[in-house]
UniProtKB/TrEMBL annotation:
Domain Zinc finger PHD-type intervals: 170-210
Source organism phylogeny: Eukaryota, Metazoa, Chordata, Craniata, Vertebrata
GO MF annotation list: histone H3K4me3 reader activity; zinc ion binding
Main location group: nucleus
Gene name per UniProt: ING5
SUPFAM superfamilies documented for this protein: FYVE/PHD zinc finger (SSF57903)
PANTHER family the UniProt entry points to: INHIBITOR OF GROWTH PROTEIN, INHIBITOR OF GROWTH PROTEIN 5
UniProtKB keywords: Chromatin regulator, Metal-binding, Nucleus, Zinc, Zinc-finger
Region described as Disordered: 98-147
Similarity-based family: Belongs to the ING family.
Annotated protein name in UniProt: Inhibitor of growth family member 5
Tree of life domain: Eukaryota
Localization of this protein: Nucleus
Inhibitor of growth protein N-terminal histone-binding domain mapped to chain residues: 1-89
Pfam families documented for this protein: ING (PF12998)
Length: 217
């Protein structure tokens, strides 16, 4: 609602500016056509009117710039909030998928282990161990692949959106701010802010910035 109001106000300011510019053109034309017949005081008065009109135009333009900056900040705030919600949703989805994969893999491992034991006796026990380990490895591998997919989807989706070329960049990826980010407590850190996805984080860590430590070495 506030954003639409700002756009409406900017349109009104545009119209006021155009009206004032038309008024300036009329005043300037009248001054030029009558300047030879005007007394010094009248000339000053006419020029003062033109100057006041220009000042009003500048005032309208300044107000429009302030409204544009305010609107940009409001939109950017909503985008950041949406990015954070999307990151939380993807994290929840990842946890649910990993939990589901763990349960299904564990059930298959136990069932297959019992079948091998019944068929192969003591040799089957050794076989069962390897079979039971297999789902865990698959689960770990699958979980890793899913995590990589989730973490790669989030930044790409965000970076596909149009970006202000003047907006500052952060992190090892040198991209704009989006989603959840972690700030380095060390004031000498050259990067300062990192995207969770780029540094393989899901929660806020503790300790010193590894990037700065590596640079110092």
């Amino acid at each position: 609602y506030l954003t639409s109001m700002n756009f409406q106000l900017m349109r009104e300011l545009d119209q006021r500016t155009e009206d004032k510019k038309a008024e300036i053109d009329i005043l300037a034309a009248e001054y030029i056509s009558t300047v030879k017949t005007l007394s010094p005081d009248q000339r000053v008065e006419r020029l003062q009117k033109i100057q006041n009109a220009y000042s009003k135009c500048k005032e309208y333009s300044d107000d429009k710039v302030q409204l544009a900056m305010q609107t940009y900040e409001m939109v950017d705030k909503h985008i950041r909030r949406l990015d954070a919600d999307l990151a939380r949703f993807e994290a929840d989805l990842k946890d649910k998928m990993e939990g589901s994969d763990f349960e299904s893999s564990g059930g298959r491992g136990l069932k297959k282990g019992r079948g091998q034991k019944e068929k192969r006796g003591s040799r089957g026990r050794g076989r069962r161990t390897s079979e039971e380990d297999t789902p865990k490895k698959k689960k770990h591998k699958g979980g890793s692949e899913f995590t990589d997919t989730i973490l790669s989807v989030h930044p790409s989706d965000v970076l596909d959106m149009p970006v202000d070329p003047n907006e500052p960049t952060y992190c090892l990826c040198h991209q704009v701010s989006y989603g959840e980010m972690i700030g380095c407590d060390n004031p000498d850190c050259p990067i300062e802010w990192f995207h969770f996805a780029c540094v393989d984080l899901t929660t806020k860590p503790k300790g010193k910035c590894k990037t700065l430590s590596q640079i110092n070495k």
